[in-house]
Amino acid sequence: MYQKKFVNYWSSKINDSSGDSKQLWIYLKRLLSIPKSTATIHSPNDFARHFEAKIERIRQSTVTCPERSISSRFLTEPLSTFRPVTVEEVTTLIRKSPAKQCPLDPMPTWLLKEACDTVAPFITLMCNTSITQGKFPNSQKSAIVRPLIKEVNMDPSDLNSYRPISNLSFVSKLLERITDARFTEHANANNLLSTAVSLPETSFH
User: Which of 75, 90, 109, 197 gives 101 a disulfide partner, CB atoms 3.0 to 4.6 angstroms apart?
Assistant: First the structure.
């Protein structure tokens, strides 16, 4: 259906420019600059095997790296627990989040924002349970991964021309922001980062 629409669209554009050579060349230039669809070149399994092999190569390249000794200046208070999240914090995070969504989400983000006051207490409970138990729910470990070509002038037939872009569920990204805020708070409070790379506070109160 997509290919049919594609052909019909450009056929009509070229036919409409009959007698206007300047406009015809403009359409032809646009048509010829459109990259070939990756769907006709690589299958999802091709991309999956390529990205898995890439990850495995990275793992193998670091497996023999020696452990780094920790300087005494880094021996500060250990990070053993995260501070619990509040309903107010979750509500603020939801309302400030972009209106993006993932096909894995049970409801669209715009609807979640409208029902924020109702669902925030339940999401807060989910996040605090995850923090307390030190476990990330299996249901939130999945992502929709799409290959994106790195540069428009790169060869679309070469798998190395692509990077994997993961579309995560809303709750998983929310929990990520919460734990990031806790870690940033701990790192800054204990001077674990140099002044040049000190992270900004990202928690919401």
Answer: 109
Give 79-104 as a DSSP string: ---PPPP-HHHHHHHHHHS-S---TT
Q: Residue 132 region, left (φ>0) first, then alpha (ψ -120 to 50), else beta?
A: alpha
pLDDT tens sequence across 71-100: 555 556 777 788 899 999 999 999 999 888
Distance CA 174, CA 125 (A): 13
End-to-end CA distance of the chain: 50
- Determine the Cα–Cα distance for residues 4 and 130; give it in Å rounded to an integer: 48
- Asked whether the beta carbons of 104 and 142 are under 8 A apart, the reply is yes
**Which DSSP state fits 66?**
P
- pTM, whole model, 2 decimals? 0.62
Spell out, as residue ranges, where the chain has pLDDT lower than 70: 33-40, 68-76, 194-205
Q: How far is CA 185 from the centre of its chain?
A: 23
How far is 191 from 18, CA to CA, in rounded Å? Answer: 70
Burial of 147 (0-12, 13-18, 19+ CB in 10 A): buried
Whether residue 47 contacts residue 54, with contact meaning beta carbons closer than 8 Å, is answered with: no
